[in-house]
Amino acid sequence: MNKPIIALDFSSKTQVEQFLNHFNEPLFVKVGMELYFQEGPELVRYIKSQGHSIFLDLKLHDIPNTVESAMRGLAKLGVDLVNVHAAGGLEMMKAAKHGLADSETKLIAVTQLTSTSEEQMQSDQLIPVSLTESVLHYAKLAKQAGLAGVVCSVLEAEAIGATCGEDFLRVTPGIRPADVSADDQKRIATPEQARLQGATHIVVGRAITKSVNPAQSYQQIKNEWSDAK
Fold first, then answer.
1. DSSP 8-state secondary structure symbol assigned to residue 53
2. pLDDT tens digit string along 130-163?
3. Residue 217 CB-half CA count within 13 A
4. Could you tell me which of 191, 169, 176, 172 has the C-alpha nearest to residue 112?
5. Could you read off the pLDDT of 23-76 as tens digits, one per residue?
6. Which of 3, 30, 59, 222 is catalytic?
7. Taking a C-beta distance cutoff of 8 angstroms, is the pair 57, 83 a contact?
8. Residues 6+ apart with CB under 8 A from 66
9. At what angle do helices 41-49 and 13-20 cross, to 10 degrees?
10. pTM (2 decimals)?
11. How far is CA 77 from CA 10, 16, 50, 118, in A?
């Protein structure tokens, strides 16, 4: 069972160091745009030097050549996961994968953000199908491009596994215990629900990073995720 991925919802290396000091085991952490744009590659190198795995969540979306060049640079950081927006299209995703060709970094694609509702998708993006249909379309496109998986909500994980194969990664944000606020997420689930519905990885943020005892909260979520039947 994969470890829960902890979203480092911080804006400085100092905050990251203080947070990581709560733990005495290797973690799988997510470095997103806010943190990366503040601290850059040096922070990634620091986290890797401490023995942790990294999901670099930058959601690249640009013309294929630009994304390929960017991925070639990111490949040097040795992160474990990195992503693009599936909406960038088949050729862009293929180019991104090509940029990572000489690395062991796995590439996944964002389908629809977990903060997006079906109504928002249809009105803002002018996508007339259901949210599930849109997510499945993007997942199939990502698989066609040779990617390792997608970012999706728990609600679509099972269908993606059935369509794209059980080895196809389903990385699911919006995970939190039942007693924790949904905040800005709309499609959320508990760790147990995520496992039961076919997620291969879960991403947990504030339920751990804002906890008075991060290590204890992490262990509780890890146990719930691992023990789900």
1. E
2. 999 999 999 999 999 999 999 999 999 999 999 9
3. 20
4. 172
5. 999 999 999 999 999 999 999 999 999 999 999 999 999 999 999 999 999 999
6. 59
7. yes
8. none
9. 20
10. 0.93
11. 20, 18, 14, 36
The single-letter code of the amino acid at 201 is H
210 alpha carbon, distance to own chain's centre:
19
Residues 120/92, Cβ–Cβ less than 8 Å: no
User: Could you give the 3-state DSSP secondary structure of residue 169?
Assistant: strand
For the range 41-49, what are the long-range contacts, defined as Cβ-Cβ under 8 Å and sequence gap of 24 or more? 41/77, 42/13, 43/13, 43/16, 44/77, 44/79, 45/77, 46/13, 46/16, 47/16, 47/20, 48/77, 48/78, 48/79
Statement: residue 102 has pLDDT above 60: yes
Hey, which residues does 57 pair with through a beta bridge? 32
Burial class (CB in 10 A: 0-12, 13-18, 19+), 26: exposed
Both structure tokens of 39 = 């601290």
Chain length of the chain: 229
pLDDT at 226 over 90: no
pLDDT digits (tens, 9 = 90+) for 173-212: 989 886 655 455 555 789 999 999 999 999 999 999 999 9
Is residue 59 annotated as part of the catalytic site, yes or no? yes
Strand pairing class (149-151; 28-32): unpaired
